[in-house]
Amino acid sequence: MKRARIIYNPTSGREAFKKELPAVLEKLELAGYEASAHATTGEGDAIKAAKLAVERKYDIVIAAGGDGTINEVINGLAEQEYRPKLGVIPVGTTNDFARALTIPRDSIQKAVDVIVENHTKLLDIGKVNEQYFINIAGGGKLTELTYDVPSKLKTMLGQLAYYVKGIEMLPSLKPARVKIEYDGNIIEEDIMLFLISNTNSVGGFEKLAPDACLDDGYFDLLILRKTNLAEFVRIASMALRGAHLEDDHVIYTKARHVKVTPEDKMQLNIDGEYGGLLPGEFRNLQQHIEFFVPKSYLNRETTE
Predict the structure, then answer these.
(1) Which member of 273, 281, 301, 304 is catalytic?
(2) pLDDT (tens digit per residue) in 138-195
(3) Which of 184, 193, 270, 290 is the most buried (most CB within 10 A)?
């Protein structure tokens, strides 16, 4: 019998997963898995739990939580000699990675069905210095709002909490001098932010990196040049409908390898969490982990 290890954040999504755990375990058992679960106890615990699942040679690992939980599980699996297949049950605030894979976000049981149906695909992940990311890495003042939002506010308001915090931060946005090297090119100028995206969904914006592909070995690199507040607000509204890429203030390209060196102190955002300080070297690990995906996602990939 195959073995499944669930790693879940008990506080994610108003504790929704904890309530449905017995039904999830039952569904996995009926599908032929010997299933067990680990509730995370704090920051970094999902990394340890994932590494233990690797050591114990579980057939599949299931990450249940928000993008932060998925990130930690990835950090436990990446570059290990043995890597279990990975399932995702989204119960966080934005669930960018699940959104990109079209995994149902409105029903925990539907997300479990994706795993039970057993359609998989090898997908890229990112590495920056000695950390890994699945969705996005970036820098610039505005990228800090994703981990500046208090968890209680996130639980109460969901994604609206990010908009509230973003509006609050607008007056303090200032450009920063950086040197960005990518695949033999160099940009050295004042920027508002940079994003290195693995998927098309960033902070709930599905059109921020519209050409992102999860298995091509490339990141989508988006740089916002120095702007004033009015220009910034205009470009942000354009980004909601995917019209920002033609703007002169935006640099948008694909890259396998990116190196970012700021002139002054700049924080690194990794999958919505604080990832230390830059500089950083970003590498794409192509088709590195096998994920459970909906059949509709595979069909969409073949028709595009």
Answers:
(1) 273
(2) 998 766 655 555 555 555 545 555 555 566 666 667 889 999 999 999 999 999 889 9
(3) 270
